[in-house]
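User: What would this chain look like folded?
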Amino acid sequence: MLNETCILTTKDFTILEAMRERHADPRDPLAPILARKLKTARMVLHDDIPANVATLNSRVTFRASGACAETRVISHERMNLLVGVFQPITTPRGLALLGLAEGQEYRIAWRGMEERVVLDTVEYQPEAARRGRTPDGGMVRHPAEQVRTSRGTPSLTLVHCTPKDRGGEAAG
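Assistant: Here's the prediction, encoded as structure tokens.
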């Protein structure tokens, strides 16, 4: 059996409870997911949520049913701006991702088929950023100081180089 336990901040839990009231019709595709999420949720304060757990406004990389990995920001509502950037919790995939830890999967049934959603990484979590931590326990640095390679490991990239930077004198 899959580990369906999810970890939710008190704020995220409260939002899901309100959504459950709005999606009470059992034919609503979100209704069974909301019921399962709330039933299996472990609620924690925002200061206590592990940095590798997807919360609202987290930027995550995930895969759905073995497809290529996608990176999205988990949002509360649908966003018509910047298509492809957000994954709202008002969709089955977005709702499935909320509260998952890195490496955890969640199965959802919608559109007449079962879909397996796997959270690969939490690239950014607002609660961890407020505490000054990254998912791997390191310190958060300004985005300009850290560049991620295709494998997700930090690396530095030289953006501008002058003759003086190379050890020579600046052209004058």
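The chain has a mean pLDDT of 80. If you want, I can go into more detail on any region.
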